[in-house]
Amino acid sequence: MTSTIVRTTTRVMLPFIIVFGIYVIAYGHISPGGGFQGGMILAGAAILLILSYGFDKPARFMSHLQSLESGGVLLFIFIGSITLLLWLPYLADLGIIPILNIIVAVKVFAGVTLIYVFIARWELPHD
Amino acid sequence: MNLLTYLLAAGILTVFGFIFFSTKHLSYPMVLTSEMSLFYLEHLSQTGAINAVSAILLDFRAYDTLGEILVLFATISGVMLIARREE
Predict the structure, then answer these.
(1) ipTM score here?
(2) pTM attached to this predicted model
């Protein structure tokens, strides 16, 4: 997969994909879109990068991705618990939907990239 | 016929029963003009979002989003457990 054509196409397309993903996340509360969809687009960009340039360079960021993925879950739960302390329903009427979109997007991006990397590097045991 | 077959048959019957009885009481016009959808549209301005889908996902039904996030977390945990490299 790491031919010159694939690398050049990736280098041209990648900024547009990333900008579109960030647009979908940032305008999630105004236009159709949201954190989940934008995170998926960003994960697609990361998967394209790994497909065309190999595992060697992104291998350093694996532990950071795991931290982002678990930290997103914890942050979402903690922010949601603020309204529970005020005796309101979970995440009710805080007006922080863009922030929640960003948290969900980071979490989905890290999670889907991790799933791809783990399955792609999976070696069947020799038996 | 062992126990597993009986359990499987009971499960399938239960699922079909739920589907039958839940769709029996849902008529189409009632869904479109239910009180819940009107409530969502009337209280949309409190959430700070114009997009009703985002408002429902992250404000009115945030527990659903929390469960969705936890499902993705459990999926990644399972993938990491199964597809981990022995190094």
Answers:
(1) 0.80
(2) 0.77
